[in-house]
Amino acid sequence: MGIRGIIKGLGITFKHLFETYSEDLKQGPDRYKTAEGIQDRLSADTKGIFTVQYPEEKIPVPEAFRYIPFLIYDELEGGERDIRCTSCGICAKVCPPQCIWITRSVNPETGRPIPKPEKFFIDIDICMNCGYCAEYCPFEAIRMDHDYEIAGFDRMNHHIYDMEKLLKPASYYAKTHPVQYAEEETARLEKEAKKAAAQAAKAA
Ligand code: SF4
Ligand code: SF4
To answer: What is the pTM of this model?
Structure first.
């Protein structure tokens, strides 16, 4: 890290310390008692260090915040859900504590596998929130959620997430991860355009 890193770190610490008192002096008791003051403390632009009266007050989490993974489905017309997961199993293979279980769907007539999960479980007590599953998924089907209020009394009922609990619409993902979602959508549209151009060239 070196001396420059230490000085930089100390500089950030002193900046927070100074801003804590300068903001308190500037805003006075309003900072803690009025709705505007509370809103200011909860905004991304807030300065200094202060105590948050959780659960009444909650600090918004940054986009990169990661907790328990969720599965994404695209919303089709008529309310149909297009689950992105192909049950390839890569996430389960890379998961360090091995807390993902997947069963692939099977065509009942042919007995052949269908690239969709029939069952998908994550043991959230074992999940260490590393984000590897989201990092390695080739289909952008699993991402890290922002929801951290997941305490429950019954482990089996509340902490083993099944597919219904894990599935969330792409619109939810767009809301919680606007930058990442936009990047992925741009890349996807470019890929589709290239594919269409290649097909048109082949047909010509
Ligand atoms: S979430 Fe992604 S990596 Fe995991 S099984 Fe589904 S498609 Fe594969
Ligand atoms: S976040 Fe890490 S520990 Fe949790 S399910 Fe994904 S790979 Fe496993």
So the answer is: 0.82
